[in-house]
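Notes, Module 5: Reading structure tokens.

Key idea: the token line is not a picture. It is a compressed description, and you learn to read it the same way you learned to read a sequence, by spotting repeated patterns. We will look at two proteins. The first is printed below with its tokens.
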Amino acid sequence: MELNIGNQIKRLRRERDITQEEFASVLGVSYQSVSRWENNTCYPDIELLPTIADFFGISIDRLMGVDEAAEKSKVAQYTSRFQDAVSQGRIDDCISIARNGVAEYPNNYELLNRLMYVLFLSGDSDGNIPEWQENMQKYDSEITMLGERIMKYCPDQNIRLEAAGRLAFQHCEMGRKELGRAIYETLPSQKYCKEVQMWWALNEDEKLPFVHNRIRAGYSSLCHGIYLLLSERLLPDEELLKICEKQFALDTLVFDGAPPASWRVANTHVMMSAVFARMKKCAQMYAQLEAAATAAKAFDNRTDTVEIPTLLQGKVVQRKTDFETTDSRTLCEIMRDKWLASEDFDGVRDAERFKDILRSLSA
């Protein structure tokens, strides 16, 4: 069996921000010995293993990497349970699952990142979490600590970058915009990301999946940009209508026809109906509201997994658990109780056709 003691010692030592010299002094050995361990030139004497394990607060088996396979399997179980809970907006359950995982594996960065993520989600004003403002304050220091720890010590670059982006967002949300901006400035430019640069190193059999994935990512990014234009009302209403039409045309293009049921499709119809409401175009408004209700029902009744063959994206696989939310309500309930509560619809709130749409969302 290949032992992994040196890498474990290096990682654990760096997590505690101590030098090789300081660690060597604790053990009563030379710093050259610690260096040789960490370079996998040799192993510590067996008599030292209990002292090293005790210093880091772990078992000897864990120090030796014996239970890595078991940890990977257990972490996957925690991750699966977490994903089930977050897809249903059960944020308190997510926090409990992540904390239990971190308690069992305190140095697992995948679990630490999940914990940071769900503590951040618990302060989301867009869900149905009554105590979201309290959570923002309560978890601020823990989110910051987790983010800084992951950024400093995590060996997985993707996890580090994800945590960095989330920490920057947290700083901005808490009024520390300069700190957030400083972190954002350290993130790699899109121009030099893997998805742009990797093409030249691909084998022939890797090129088609690579292009499909890049198109999917580009489509997702474009949809998010369109959502920001619409939700923030960054343009006049006449132009927002055209943008809604472009979104639907884009969906048709990338899915070779009607897109699958999604939260975004329903939301786009609602935002388009709000524009028509502001413009006093009731017929068009009702058409979009009815389309939104149909989309919301389809989303709530979607199957656990759907596979969609497309020309541009290849086979798209969507799983129910892929959807992440801080709202435990169905989409129909969200549309009825939140989206349609907008003041944009105050002028038609007492109209029978509007009430019929509300009733259909309660059926």
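Here is the second protein, with the sequence above and the tokens below, as before.
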Amino acid sequence: MSVSRSNSERPNGCPPVTVLICTLNEEQNLSFVIPQIPKWVDEILLIDGHSTDKTVELAKHLRPEIKIMTQPGKGKGEALKFGVQQAMGEIIITLDADGETPPEEINNFIVPLLEGKDFAKGSRLFKRRPLKMPRYRWFGNKALAITCNLLFGTHFTDICSGYNAFWKNKFLQLNLPHDVHEVGCSMEQVIIVRSKKRGMNIEEIPHTSNGRIGGTSVLSNPGQTIVQGFKDWFVVIGERFQK
């Protein structure tokens, strides 16, 4: 199948698409994300993690048609799983709310699915270290990717990007952890390795990464980042020994 990757038009033969965004106090960044989502997208679904700023009000102002739900629990892992379950699209695109995953590149992720792939996973590190990514974070991300490659026979350059696309029915087959709060920020890694273990056809898609635009990340200092990095590392290793 030959499909254009221009974001200005809906790809030929594309089924319903949901763009899924998980938020927690992202008022400073949504103006750089939501308006850039192509108009042809069938559903924009925002799962909010009990924000205390004007995240929800701003999202409604930016795109009145947006569907907003409050996650029943807490943590990004739980929000992602809940959001996919609620989505109406056959294809799900996950975007970060902080501006690191440019919506202008959505078609680069949809086209591989239309060409037969099960999962299109993003990579911020395909060519070089993003300018806003500190060296210690770059090193940690590369270590995680190398660990995944050694344990699962993959050839990925990044397993932590929040920019991903997949068929909803394939996602629902992954048997993700029941207590996803325990997975937390490691959810992307769990999704990737479980997709690989199930024999799904995964394509890595390079994408632009200019880092968080504004505000403070939940991993706002090197100590927090390193601790989370070790959690991610142990999650990947643990997945190797689970059936």
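Summary for the second protein:
- The helical segments are 55-62, 76-86, 106-114, 135-152, 168-171, 187-197, 222-240.
- The chain is about 35% helix and 15% strand.
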